[in-house]
Specification:
Elements (H helix, E strand, L loop, with lengths): L6 E4 L5 H12 L3 E6 L3 H12 L5 E5 L5 H15 L4 E4 L14 H29 L3 E6 L12 H20 L5 E8 L8 H4 L2 H9 L9 H12 L10 E4 L11
Parallel strand pairs: 1-2, 1-4, 2-3, 4-5, 5-6, 6-7
Length: about 260
């Protein structure tokens, strides 16, 4: 097991990609702190699957869109597990609206969860690792939309572009502490957020035409990459985005 003895925090791990990552890290030997905002039932499922693997798990309620919650989440994870070696910034939201119709409330909600949350959680994690003697891994779950325009989702794309630049900047600034930081950029992944898409062939079929592998990604496809980046196999990788999209990014066109 590549992560034996490691302790990780995965934000937004009550469902979808975050849940898959938390479970995969546990399968590789890590103890895991999981996080939820409202979906306690989903968090309980994640925790039960992790503890069934013989790993320690703490489930912590926090809204990472609130700076104080993001910091508290890291600190409570450290207290629960004794330390943290890995931070996975997975929690994220999106709002579908034409640019001329976006409300200030929706704009701020996306910015706070998708950008402020990772920023301040990473800051708290870096301070912890500095005080613990250095080392550690930060993995941001970004999106192909850190590169690819997505009309009607402008704030979402803005946050993913910002996450890319934050990662690149911190790969230099945190390197003296021995902390690596990388992004994983999924394409179209089959998760609860895509329920409407998956149930409408008129939306799904054109998307599949844009994916060279002709299938949606699965949460496990992303989780495997996150586990790799958390392991010693990726110790010399920092400042990189790994795209997990079946070829979508370089084959996409608006219909």
């Amino acid at each position: 097991m590549k992560l034996e003895g490691k302790r990780a925090l995965v934000t937004g791990s009550d469902q979808g990609i975050g849940q898959a990552i938390a479970i995969r890290l546990a399968e590789e030997g890590a103890d895991v702190a999981i996080n939820f905002r409202k979906n306690r039932e989903g968090a309980d499922e994640t925790r039960s699957r992790i503890t069934a693997l013989g790993r320690r798990c703490a489930a912590i309620q926090a809204d990472v869109g609130k700076v104080e919650d993001a910091v508290r989440l890291v600190n409570e994870s450290v207290a629960a597990l004794g330390a943290l070696d890995v931070l996975v910034n997975n929690a994220g939201i999106e709002k579908n609206a034409a640019f001329v119709d976006i409300t200030e409330a929706d704009y701020r909600a996306v910015m706070e969860v998708n950008m402020s949350g990772p920023f301040f959680a990473t800051q708290a994690f870096a301070r912890h690792r500095r005080d613990a003697g250095g080392g550690g891994s930060v993995i941001n779950i970004s999106s192909v939309h850190e590169e690819l325009p997505f009309p009607h989702f402008t704030p979402y794309c803005m946050t993913k572009g910002a996450l890319k630049m934050m990662m690149r900047n911190l790969s230099i600034e945190l390197a003296p502490l021995g902390i690596t930081i990388n992004n994983v950029a999924p394409g179209a992944v089959q998760t609860p957020i895509n329920t409407k898409l998956l149930s409408d062939p008129k939306l799904l079929n054109p998307l599949l035409e844009n994916i060279p592998l002709r299938r949606l990604g699965q949460p496990a496809d992303v989780a495997g990459v996150a586990a790799f980046l958390a392991s010693a196999d990726a110790a010399y990788i920092t400042g990189a985005t790994i795209v997990v999209d079946g070829g979508l990014l370089w084959n996409y066109s608006e219909q």
